[in-house]
Design a protein that fits this description.
Elements: H1 12-15, H2 21-29, E1 34-39, E2 44-50, E3 57-63, H3 79-92, E4 101-103, H4 114-124, H5 139-143, H6 145-151, H7 155-167, H8 243-255, H9 279-294
Parallel strand pairs: 1-4
Antiparallel strand pairs: 1-2, 2-3
């Protein structure tokens, strides 16, 4: 769909091709009732409608299929049927509507068409409608002379009889037209047998099994690191005294005498450190010894 700052969405009936709001506004501004003529595949519909703020109000309606109750044996979508439908609608709104404007909707204004045949029937019924005489169908076409020549049926004679039957109706009455003698009773369409509605099937509800809960394995405990034990200072073993000292102390305790003080041992003199002899001195000492041996 188009979009933009200047684009506006049309009304629904305008999008569907059902209403031309520009033409409708012009008809509403006339302040007169509208003679609405619509065509279907099998019928002609004529309505007299007035405008109201809350919605259009229908004053009178006539359908071409209602002509069957008055003795019409021919098509309900032809030009003679359109004229008789407009004539019947004008009789039903007699005394309520004196002037009107034609509303043909989205139909093209074709000369001598069915919508103008319906308007001609309303004009003959006493309703004043602005129009041009050149747009109306001819008198022979309104009476169905072209159909009689083609189908070889007395449609013009039946047209005159049906128009006289409409004149006998009470003006201003909305009820259906009385049935004429010898009229064909419309048969209701054969309805197809309605299949029994199936019983609602209740779905079998099965108990829903909840999904198994996930097994959460606890994390492995961390190894406990014990603090290192403080190193205990073991006392150094005391120097053992010689066995003689222990015996002296034991005798002193038994006798009650103090042990005699032993003389301190003299310190051993250190060994003389031999100075290393050089090669020259060794040679000299060897030579001296050799000389001493030679002397007698």
């Amino acid at each position: 769909m188009a979009s933009g700052p200047r684009f506006s969405v049309k009304f629904r009936r305008r999008r569907e091709g059902k209403t031309d709001y520009k033409k409708r506004l012009a008809l509403v501004k006339s302040r007169k009732p509208r003679m609405v003529v619509r065509k279907t595949s099998t019928n002609i519909i004529v309505q007299f409608v007035t405008f109201a703020p809350e919605g259009d109000k229908v004053i009178g309606t006539a359908l071409s299929r209602e002509l069957k109750a008055l003795g019409w044996k021919y098509s309900t979508k032809s030009v003679p049927a359109a004229y008789l439908t407009g004539y019947l609608a004008s009789k039903r709104v007699a005394g309520k509507v004196s002037e009107a404007v034609l509303d043909i909707g989205l139909s093209g204004p074709k000369k001598g068409s069915k919508v103008f045949a319906a308007m001609k029937g309303a004009l003959d019924g006493g309703i004043k409608i602005p129009h041009g005489k050149e747009i109306l169908p001819t008198e022979d076409r309104i009476k169905g002379k072209h159909i009689e020549d083609y189908r070889k049926l007395p449609i013009t004679q039946d047209f005159t009889i049906l128009k006289q039957a409409i004149d006998k109706l009470k003006a201003g009455k909305i009820e259906k037209a009385p049935k004429a003698k010898g009229a064909v009773k419309p048969t209701a369409p054969a309805l197809r047998p309605v299949a029994p509605t199936p019983k609602p099937v209740t779905p079998v509800t099965r108990p829903t099994v909840p999904p198994p809960k996930p097994v959460i394995t606890p994390p492995a405990p961390k190894p406990v690191v014990q603090p290192p034990k403080p190193a205990t200072m073991q006392p150094k073993p005391a120097d053992k005294k010689p066995a003689m000292d222990d015996m002296d102390a034991l005798l002193a305790e038994l006798t009650g005498k103090k042990p005699a003080a032993q003389p301190a041992k003299p310190p051993t003199p250190p060994k003389p450190v031999e100075t290393p002899k050089t090669n020259i001195e060794e040679l000299l000492s060897k030579k001296k010894k050799e000389e001493e041996k030679k002397e007698p």
